[in-house]
Amino acid sequence: MAERRPILEFENVTVSFAGAPALDNLSFLVREGDSRIILGAAGSGKSVLMKTALGLLKPDRGRVKVFGEDTSHLSETQWFAVRRKLGVLFQEGGLFDSLTIEENVAYPLENNRVNRPSSEEIFERTKEALEFVELGETLDKVPSELSGGMRRRVGIARAMVTNPTLTLYDSPTAGLDPITSYTIVALIAKERCVHNTTTMIATHRYQDGHFLANYTYNDKTHRIEPVNRDGGDAGTRFWVLRSGHFAFEGTQSELEETRDPYVRNFMKPRMKTYGKQE
Amino acid sequence: MLDFLKGPVQAVQDVFILGGKAIGNIVRRPFYWTDLFIQMDIIGVGSLPIVILTGFFSGAVMALQMSNALATYGAKEQTGMVVSITLVRELGPALTALMVAGRNASGMASELGSMRVTEQIDAMRALGTDPIQKLVTPRMLATAFTLPLLTVIADFVGIFGGYLVAISTLGITGPQFWTTAWQALDYSDIAQGLVKPFVFSFAISLIGCYYGLNTTGGTQGVGRATTQAVVVASVLIFVLTFFITKIFVGRVY
């Protein structure tokens, strides 16, 4: 079988703030179709990793390759071309509070300087993306009129409206209640399956990763269903980030069997939820 | 040993880099015309009432104060001259700039600061927009266009305030006041009175945007950035007005 093309690669990447490394000599490779669940406590470097992948932060050392292209020497303008193929949901949603929901979701299409779609197409795609997250009726509202969960869903619509190859979700369920969190993760699973997007999700909740590793969206039945283990979900791997480096890399079963005390401590309260506590 | 200087020197350097990029963006596409006009409305039209009030009362109080001093030398009729020179050369530009700094440098710092802490600036960059081009350049140009115009209005309203005081309480006739006020002004005074607000406009907008874009620490950070922007912009106005005056005074005499 032909090797899937590389989408995102970090080579010994170090990012520091005031001398303290937030990412410490980090290396990994994500290939097309992969799903990566980055678990980590607050301050472990999850958001820094996401922002470095997007070129919003420059590494002090090491190289970041996006779609196989070294980005070390790219200017901010050159980065715009790379970012057009990336979708991102920020921790706080990152919606522009002075724009309507329609304008927010249409923003990446409107600002495509190279290949801007027609106004009719922009409207259609915006509506379609909002209907995907079941918020088709909110076009004229502004972000402050929506709940936290709805804003996060609008953020997902904005991330997927350009049909990105790689979508990055930075703590999509942070600060949300369990029911809303489920809705958000289910939407991420749906987006991943419908558009076959390479997905990286940073979260502090093991439940989010567990869901994405074990459930998938069935396009025919339009339902979230358990993954057929025989078919495999080898593309979904977990990373546990601790102080800017990986404390764990592996599959869900490897994660649940790990003896690393930090990772186990991190997992304990979450495993209890699923009745898997020893 | 000189570590305490690193921060301020770095900040000055960053403001200059921000200014360079914002100016460079004037000739680079896309140009955000709508944002420019919105900012001109906010800064220019929005500041009009406060600038008119400040200008009027500073002219009026200047006439009251100066007429007393001039009366000592029997030159009370020259009140118009003193009011117009003081306003056009110094008080008009400085007070207008201070008002706009208080109103708009704080507005820019808090608006951009809020966008920063809610990741809207990052989102903007991630979605293919240069925040300097979209946010800083229109604010800088809008301030550069409107501040000199506001200053002209403040100057006129101030002289008018002085005129009302002169005819109502000082016993100076209208023609006397306007003739001395008009004759006192030289082209260099007008130039000085317009160069100052133009220069101040860059200080106000760039300082406001710089502190906004560099906000850290959540909502508390937004408050801190706003305060710092107003304080630094106001101090800078006084420093700059000294140097510009020095240049003009040195050239004329």
| Biggest sheet character of chain B | none
Q: Note the overall shape of chain A.
A: globular
Distance between the termini of chain B: 43 Å
| Category from helices, strands and their pairing of chain B | mainly alpha
Percentage of helical residues of chain B?
over 70%
Strand content of chain A: 25-35%
Roughly what percent helix of chain A? 25-40%
Any low-confidence stretches of chain A, pLDDT <50, length ≥5? 273-278
**Alpha carbon gyration radius of chain A:** 18 Å
| Helix/strand order of chain B, N-terminal first | HHHHHHHH
Description:
By secondary structure, chain A is α/β, with parallel strands linked by helices. Chain A is 36% helix and 27% strand. In chain A, strand 11 (236-242) and strand 12 form a beta hairpin. The longest helix of chain A has 18 residues, at 178-195. Chain A is globular. Residues 273-278 of chain A have low confidence and may be disordered. Chain B is an all-alpha fold and 253 residues long. Chain B has one domain (31-252). Chain B is 87% helix and 0% strand. At the A-B interface, helix 2 of A face helix 4 of B.
